[in-house]
């Protein structure tokens, strides 16, 4: 009996040693060592660009409140100029995040072709509703990574969260076109080219494990986000947030699934399950108005405390990206790991996790804190 137990322990140890890091979505996130190295060398690795506010959905959790009659669009020359400035700062990928649905931009294909021509990886956030077979093939040829949407495997819940009847069928049809184009064919086991975001809340919390399996089985990057109290979500889903204990339960379950079923191991405390988020160290987010933020929900530009003579001073229409990047405020943001508070301060996992700064900021601002105090606050998603 003792011999059998000993063999079982050895087998578990051997199996544990065979676990590996899960794959990332190429260009969307970066290895922690790359992130810190870039920060220390004053190098940008990515920028996130809003291109248009028009959208064919009206998602109830949208931070930008896109959709409806919001037709604002950034000029093509403005976008290409920003990409050229970012390239001079060392950028490896441009995340075309839209603000709305980026494939609706009048120069979407020209923009992706331009990014590709600069030897930069285009990463497109899309709800996939406007995806055609021809567009999927085009994106594949341009070395793009694509982040789709999959909030639910149930039509009624997906349609509710997307704010549009029939969204479920259209989303799945678009994802299938990307799969057919080759986006889930593995060329590099550490990097994927297709992902899906799902915003976790009470409405879809019981599906999290099913969505995770759906992604892993199809070589799709699972981007589990937690409902953040900002934008439209603050009004329409204010009672749908999941608690810290629920976040703990789901992340530990997903970690167990990855270890047992797929051979992956990862730190369960990071903001994005199986991925982490260190974008404050190496990325800039640029709104359609040209305002620069550390990330989407860190809305510095909407905070009066950061205005100067009635204007937000960190705008690419008034200053170069390099000037903004080197400004004292954004230098502080890139070094926020040195100023964190609560259990995030001096955490033994700082080498790969700084908590969700966007979530901490949103919660802190809602409590009346000043911007930098909110930014350095303890990450309330963490259950460590």
Explain the overall architecture.
- The protein is an alpha/beta fold and 384 residues long.
- It has a domain at 22-262: Aldolase class I (TIM Barrel, Alpha-Beta Barrel).
- 38% of the residues lie in helices and 12% in strands.
- The protein is built from 15 helices and ten strands.
- The strands form two sheets. It has an eight-stranded mixed β-sheet. A two-stranded parallel sheet has the order 1-6.
- Helix 4 links the parallel strand 3 (93-99) and strand 4.
- Helix 8 (208-217) packs parallel to helix 10.
- The longest helix is centred in the middle third of the chain and has 19 residues, at 244-262.
- The radius of gyration is 20 Å and the shape is globular.
- The relative contact order is 0.13.
- Residues 1-14 have low confidence and may be disordered.
């Amino acid at each position: 009996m003792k011999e059998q137990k000993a063999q079982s322990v050895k087998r578990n140890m051997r199996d544990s040693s065979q676990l590996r890091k899960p794959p990332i979505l190429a260009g969307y996130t970066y290895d922690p060592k790359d992130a810190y190295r870039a920060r220390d060398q004053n190098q940008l690795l990515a920028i996130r660009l809003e291109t248009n506010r028009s959208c064919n959905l009206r998602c109830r959790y949208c931070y930008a409140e896109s959709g409806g009659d919001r037709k604002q669009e950034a000029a093509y020359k403005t976008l290409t100029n920003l990409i050229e400035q970012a390239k001079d700062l060392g950028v490896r990928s441009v995340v075309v995040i839209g603000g709305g649905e980026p494939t609706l931009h009048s120069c979407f294909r020209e923009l992706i072709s331009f990014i590709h021509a600069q030897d930069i990886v285009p990463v497109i956030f899309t709800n996939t509703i406007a995806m055609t077979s021809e567009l999927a093939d085009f994106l594949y040829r341009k070395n793009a990574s694509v982040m789709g949407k999959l909030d639910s495997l149930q039509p009624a819940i997906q349609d509710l969260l997307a704010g549009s009847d029939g969204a479920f069928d259209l989303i799945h049809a678009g994802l299938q076109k990307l799969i057919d184009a080759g986006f889930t064919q593995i060329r590099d086991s550490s990097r994927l080219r297709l992902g899906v975001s799902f915003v976790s809340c009470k409405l879809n919390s019981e599906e999290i494990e099913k969505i995770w399996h759906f992604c892993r089985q199809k070589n799709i990057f699972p981007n589990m986000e937690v409902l953040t109290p900002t934008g439209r979500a603050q009004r329409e889903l204010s009672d749908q947030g999941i608690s810290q204990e629920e976040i703990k339960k789901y992340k530990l379950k997903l970690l167990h699934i990855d270890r047992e079923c797929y051979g992956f191991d990862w730190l369960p405390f990071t903001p994005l399950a199986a991925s982490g988020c260190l974008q404050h160290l190496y990325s800039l987010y640029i709104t359609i108005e040209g305002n620069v933020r550390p990330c989407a929900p860190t809305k510095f530009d909407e905070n009066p405390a950061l205005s100067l003579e009635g204007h937000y001073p960190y705008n690419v229409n008034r200053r170069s990206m390099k000037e903004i990047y080197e400004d004292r405020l954004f230098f502080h943001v890139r070094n926020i790991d040195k100023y964190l508070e609560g259990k995030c301060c001096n955490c033994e996992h700082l080498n790969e996790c700084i908590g969700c700064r966007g979530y901490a900021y949103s919660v802190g601002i809602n409590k009346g804190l000043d911007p930098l105090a909110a930014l350095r606050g303890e990450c309330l998603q963490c259950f460590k």
